[in-house]
Every structure is written in C-alpha cells, then in structure tokens.
Amino acid sequence: MTEREPIERMSRKERDAEASLREWAIVTRDRDDRVRAAVAAGVSKYRVNQLTGIGRSTIDRILAPDVPGTSPGEASTP
Q1: What share of the chain is helix, strand, coil (3-state, %, to 5)?
Q2: Is the pLDDT assigned to residue 69 strictly greater than 90?
C-alpha cells in the first residue's frame, strides 16, 4: 500500500493499525507535561519509571530546565 492510499482501499487490519497509532499519539502527546506534574506532586522519578516504563535518563531530560536554543526538556551540551 502506498503512503497516501485512500482509506476505502485499506484493509480492516490496516485501518485498525492506523487507528491504534493515532490513539497512541494522542495519549503520549502530553507525556512530558504529565511527568513534570507527577514529580511536582511528589511522585519520585523511580516511581514514574516503574509506572510508565520511561527510562530514567529520559525522565531526567524531561525534568531538565529548558535552555534557550534547545527543544523543551533537551539539555544543552557544553
């Protein structure tokens, strides 16, 4: 199947897979804000890791202060 094939020509399996990916994107879109809010509320980074499966280094990057000229949560390198 091509990338822009009409939905009518997609199999049910393909449509279901795409719907699943869309749902995942919606749920994970605000991941960083949810992690920051949980830690601010007192949830430990360890517990965030245990509950979400997000790696500790990723959690550290999410919680790092924003540095001008970088993406949110991305630490700058010297």
Answers
A1: 60, 0, 40
A2: no
Q: Which amino acid is at 44?
A: S
Rg for the chain, CA atoms, rounded: 18
Would the CA dihedral through 33, 44, 25, 16 be positive or negative? negative
Q: Is-above-0.85 flag for pTM? A: no
Is the pLDDT at 34 greater than 70? The verdict is: yes
Q: What is the distance between the alpha carbons of residues 11 and 22, in angstroms, rounded to a whole number?
A: 17
66: helix, strand or coil: coil
Residue 29: how many other CB atoms lie within 10 Å: 10
